[in-house]
């Protein structure tokens, strides 16, 4: 009945600001389940694969540098239509435009910062979810 898995990342800004618990709380409060959870530092190889679709874009290099600036929480989150549902919880990419009630809308900052510092990543399709879960949780 449409139980999916998605890859969620709490980016270095979220971990640094102590928002890991708050973000996981929102995921669990929605009724989604944590199927895997880890804290790790990402290297160039992992990030190049993860963000392959953005290679060549002007924000690619700063995005990768930012993602290496501290540890990241990676989670496999499971639930009914969770791929779409987590992106809805996360809100729009730009924290300024993200609606209140969303993770990025309530907690995201962009004053003096960059759009890339938007707290979370969520897979955008079933194909992306399978690919990204394989990258962050090899052997899962
Ligand atoms: P999302 O994370 O909402 O799926 P995306 O896949 O289009 O967004 O982009 C990946 C990340 O790259 C995003 O979380 C933040 C950064 N980014 C996207 N567009 C950007 C832009 N115009 N300027 C700076 N960073 C950007
Ligand atoms: Mg994306």
Automatic annotation (TrEMBL):
InterPro entries: NDK-like_dom, NDK-like_dom_sf, Nucleoside_diP_kinase, Nucleoside_diP_kinase_AS
Active site: 121
Reported cofactor(s): Mg(2+)
Pfam families assigned: NDK
SMART domains: NDK (SM00562)
Molecular functions (GO terms): ATP binding; metal ion binding; nucleoside diphosphate kinase activity
This protein's UniProt keywords: ATP-binding, Cytoplasm, Kinase, Magnesium, Metal-binding, Nucleotide metabolism, Nucleotide-binding, Phosphoprotein, Transferase
Catalytic reaction equation(s): a 2'-deoxyribonucleoside 5'-diphosphate + ATP = a 2'-deoxyribonucleoside 5'-triphosphate + ADP; a ribonucleoside 5'-diphosphate + ATP = a ribonucleoside 5'-triphosphate + ADP
Primary subcellular site in the record, as a coarse category: cytoplasm
UniProt keyword Transferase, yes or no: yes
Residue ranges annotated for the Nucleoside diphosphate kinase-like domain, each copy included: 3-140
One of the protein's GO biological processes: GTP biosynthetic process
CDD domains the UniProt entry points to: NDPk_I
Claim: Acetylation is one of the keywords in the record: no
NCBIfam families xref list: PRK00668.1
Assembly, per entry: Homotetramer.
Function according to Swiss-Prot or TrEMBL: Major role in the synthesis of nucleoside triphosphates other than ATP. The ATP gamma phosphate is transferred to the NDP beta phosphate via a ping-pong mechanism, using a phosphorylated active-site intermediate.
Entry similarity comment: Belongs to the NDK family.
Protein name, UniProt field: Nucleoside diphosphate kinase
Source organism: Ruania alkalisoli
């Amino acid at each position: 009945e449409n139980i999916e898995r998605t890859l969620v990342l709490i980016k270095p800004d979220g971990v640094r600001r102590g928002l890991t618990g708050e973000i996981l709380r929102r995921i669990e409060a929605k009724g989604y389940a944590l199927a895997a959870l880890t804290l790790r530092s990402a290297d160039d190889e992992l990030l190049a694969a993860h963000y392959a679709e953005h290679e060549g874009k002007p924000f690619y290099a700063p995005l990768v540098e930012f993602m290496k600036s501290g540890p990241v929480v990676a989670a496999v989150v499971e639930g009914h239509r969770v791929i779409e549902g987590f992106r809805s919880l996360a809100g729009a990419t730009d924290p300024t435009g993200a609606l209140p009630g969303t993770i990025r809308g309530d907690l995201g900052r962009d004053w003096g910062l960059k759009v890339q510092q938007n707290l979370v990543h969520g897979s955008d399709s079933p194909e992306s979810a399978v690919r990204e879960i394989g990258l962050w949780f090899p052997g899962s």
